[in-house]
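=== RUN LOG ===
request id: a7f3
mode: sequence -> structure
chains: 1
length: 87
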Amino acid sequence: MISAELSLYPLTSDYEAPIIDFIKRLRSQPGLRLATNGLSTQVTGAYDDVMAALTEAMRPTMDGSTSCSFVIKILNVGIEPGEEVTI
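=== RESULT ===
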């Protein structure tokens, strides 16, 4: 199990639509647990499932006409999305 935390920053004044579209595509991917908040989306699942879902959900955004930036942190620990991680 791994977890990923993603933030999408469309470089446009109409930034909401690309973010919502991305989250909808990510939610349609099987085998994942997701949580979203105002700053990021957290995804947890098997390594292959998470990485394949990120590829499929990100591709239309990256191929689109709006310039954007993704910031992604990947942990080699499966956490419940939204859960505080203790060390």
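=== NOTES ===
The first strand starts at residue 2 and ends at 10.
The helical segments are 16-27, 47-63.
=== END ===
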